Automatic annotation (TrEMBL):
Residues 83-249 form the CRAL-TRIO domain. It holds the Pfam family CRAL_TRIO. It comes from the Eukaryota. One of its GO terms (cellular component) is membrane. InterPro entries: CRAL-TRIO_dom, CRAL-TRIO_dom_sf, CRAL/TRIO_N_dom, CRAL/TRIO_N_dom_sf. This is Putative phosphatidylinositol transfer protein sec14. One of its GO terms (molecular function) is phosphatidylinositol bisphosphate binding.
Amino acid sequence: PELAKLAKEELNEVPERIQQDLEALKEWIRKQPHLRARTDDQFLVGFLRGCKWSLERTKDKIDSYYSARTVVHEIMSPRDPILEKNIAVLRLGYFVPLPLTENPDSPRVVLIRYGCYDPDEFSIIDVLRLTLMMTDVMHMEDDNRMCAGEMVLVDMEKTTMKHLFQVTPILMKKFAMLTHEAAPIRQKGFHFFNTASGFEVGFSAFKNFMKEKVRERWHVHGSGPESIAKFVPIKILPKEYGGQAGSVDDILAYWEKKLIENRDYLMNECNYGVDESKRV
C-alpha cells in the first residue's frame, strides 16, 4: 500500500490508465523499424514509473536504453547465469542488493564492494556484466527500486590502482550512459566510503561524464560504515558491516538462485537492441 501511494503521488501513476498507456507504448514500439524492444507489461511499467508516467519521456528512455545496450555489446554477453565465470563473479560479492529497506516505501539500497575481485583474474567488464544481469532482474521484480529509487553504497576497501586502471575513459562514458542516462531509475545517491588517498582525483574525472543533476548525488565519506550512517541506517546493512540483513554470502546465495530462475529472460536480452541503419 505504501509503494502504491508513492507511485500515485510522486510518479503520477493512475491505475485506471495503466492498460491504456501500455497499449500506446506497445503500438509505438511496433512502429519503430530500428527498435527491437521487450513489450512485457512489467518491463514497460518500470520505464513509465522511471519517467513519472510521461509517455513521450518513456519512449525516449526506451530508445536510449536499447541504443546504449547495443553500443556496450562487450558487457551484454555472455549472460548465461550458470556459466562458470558468471557464477564465480557473483560469489565474489561485487554487487550486493540489500534485502532490507528503511521503511516499506524506501529506496532499495545496494552495496558495491569495488576491491573484492582480483584484477589479474577478472576484468571490470566481467563484473559489470554480472551487475547488469542482476539489475535486469530487479527491474522486473523490485518495486522498491522501480518506485522509490535506488541508493548505492560503494565500499572502496582493498581497491588498488590495478582496479582503477581497468576503467578506461571510453568505458567510463559508456557505463555512465548505460546506468544513468538510459536507465529508468531514480538515483537517490552514490556514497563512497573506505576510500584511499588520491581517490578524489579519479572520482572527479568520472564525474565529468555525468550531468550536473547526477553529479550532485555523488558523495565521498570517511572510513567504516558509521561514516554513512546519516544517509542509511546501519541496521539494513549486512552483518559484516554491523547490520541485520544477514551475511553477504547469504544474500549472494539468494541471488545465485534468483539469476538461474531467470536464465531464459537474461539470455533473451541479446535478441533486443537497435539497428541504426533502419532508423527513420
